Amino acid sequence: MIVIVFTNSSAQYTIAEEPKPNLIFILVDDQGYYDLGCYGGKEFDTPRIDRMAQEGILFTDYYAAAPICSPSRAGILTGCYPRRVGLATWVQRADSRKGIHPDELTLAELLKSSGYATACIGKWHLGYLPPFLPRQQGFDHYFGLLHNLDPVEVVYFENEGGVPLMRNEEVFKQPADPAALTEVYTDEAISFIRENRDRPFFLYLPHTMAHNPLGVTDDFRGKSRFGLYGDVIQCLDHHVGRLFDTLQELSIDDRTLVVYASDNGRGPGRTADQPIRGNKLTTLEGGIRVPCIAWGPGLGIKAGQTSSQLIHAMDWYPTFATFAGVKVPEGRVIDGRDITPLLEGRCETVPSATAELSLNASVPLRRPWNPPGEWEQIVSREEYHQAFFYHGSLGSLAAVRWENWKLQLNPNFQLFDLEEDPGETKPVRNPELIRKLRGMAILFQEEMRTGTRPAGESPLSK
Q1: Above 70 in pLDDT, residue 2?
Q2: Answer CATH for 373-457 from 2.40.30.110, 3.30.1120.10, 2.60.40.2470, 3.30.1340.30
Q3: DSSP count for the chain of H helices, then E strands
Q4: pLDDT tens digits for 431-448?
Q5: 308 band by pLDDT with thresholds 50, 70 and 90
Q6: Cα–Cα distance between 106 and 121 in angstroms, integer?
Q7: Is there a catalytic annotation at residue 141?
Q8: For residue 308, which phi and psi values (nearest 5 degrees)?
Q9: Start-end of H helices in 196-283
Q10: What are phi and psi for residue 153, nearest 5 degrees?
Q11: What is the spatial distance between Cα 123 and Cα 435, in angstroms, rounded to a whole number?
């Protein structure tokens, strides 16, 4: 922004940069599609997140990168399908030798290079060994659990006093208390916000809840109409509200973008008007379609909007970069699309990469495109970029979605119209569409065959 100051004798020109916005990504664990009031949940009260939706944009067709923890997180932080970065399979427990490869450019590293203070507060689950820890992946500050607290992970720490709650490389508390985590994470997040109120910051807040074992403080126990899980959701809502209160108190709410999403689904709908089926780990809609809300009225994000556009977790990488005024470096191939124009209400759909309506709009064009003759006339580059490729918890391609059409690939091709049948109960006979989406799947498999990068492994191979 150029500010022109006039004096009696001449015009003086002062260059003043617009302050970079603050960026907050709240990631909830294992929250189902219908498990907020604004998504139709009737068993619990979520007034603060509902208000966030009223003042922002709610996505009805938003997809996690995977139906399981670690790959889902890899998708957010790299902007890539987990398979592209070698992290599509299962989870990274305490005996894992894998993590995000040091050659990957995480969202935190990209923003840090542009002057952002960066923090990861919460569950990491992307590698336990030193090269893969949060502070080696672009985060200035870390507070949280590197693991889950379920029995298959707690066993690794039985002789060490339990799973530790970490602050950077030091043990803050051991063992961690699941009932206290949502509150202490939020306390730490608020401290980080206060400490960095005068500079741009990126806060990645991946909550441990609502992953089993569930836990809440006594003031939330028994308050919902859906048992302990409902209590957890209401507890999360309260502490999300504390973050918004802090932003307002510090008068930085008008220059902050907040995204709320779940890392994967939990289970099917519970009433007749909640048709989605499927559980976590599956690629039915209930396993991977999740709540997502974006809020930032001071940054031009349209208030009170509901979007049925197909959006996925990888899209936040180039979008956050655009809000920060940072170009994704040339040569960096990712799978996310810059959805800034959609958030700002400049268009109602995700714009074409060729339209160049935002700073990182053209990033998808870095993905290779040379379809063989069989598919050249059936699938366009634009259609391919706007598709979503579902991967199961074991990393294999399971389905393709384009527009409202979903093609399940196994055990046989089944086509569903998700607009009319989100429960995937009525297969549609349409050979042309089946062929089109099958072609997308084949092209994607070839792209992954030639474009997959290795995960980091320790010791790292040279």
Answers
A1: no
A2: 3.30.1120.10
A3: 12, 20
A4: 999 999 999 999 999 999
A5: very high
A6: 16
A7: no
A8: -100, 15
A9: 227-249
A10: -110, -35
A11: 41
Angle at 322 between CA 321 and CA 326, to 5 degrees: 60
Distance (Å, rounded) from C-alpha 118 to C-alpha 111? 8
CATH T-level topology, domain 23-343: Alkaline Phosphatase, subunit A (3.40.720)
Point out the catalytic residue in the list 69, 80, 120, 235.
69
User: How many of the other CB atoms lie within 10 Å of CB of 364?
Assistant: 23
Residue given tokens 């259609």 in the structure block: 383
The answer to whether 363 and 328 have CB atoms below 8 angstroms apart is yes
Tell me what percent of the residues of the chain surpass a pLDDT of 90: 94
Q: Which of 101, 125, 147, 312 is catalytic?
A: 125
| CA distances in angstroms from 374 to 371, 397, 410, 443, listed in the order given | 8, 21, 22, 11
Sequence-separated (6 or more) residues with CB below 8 Å from residue 51: none
pTM (two decimals): 0.95
Tokens of 357: 């309506």
Task: Say what the pLDDT of residue 17 is.
Answer: 66
Give CA–CA dist 44/232, Å, rounded. Answer: 10
235 flagged as catalytic: no
Q: Residue 21 corresponds to which tokens in the numbers above?
A: 């916005």
Separation between Cα atoms, residue 360 and residue 372, nearest integer Å: 28
Domain ranges of the chain: 23-343, 373-457
- Which two tokens mark 230? 């409902």
**Cα(400)–Cα(157) distance, integer angstroms:** 40
**Is 277:268 a contact under the CB 8 Å cutoff?**
yes
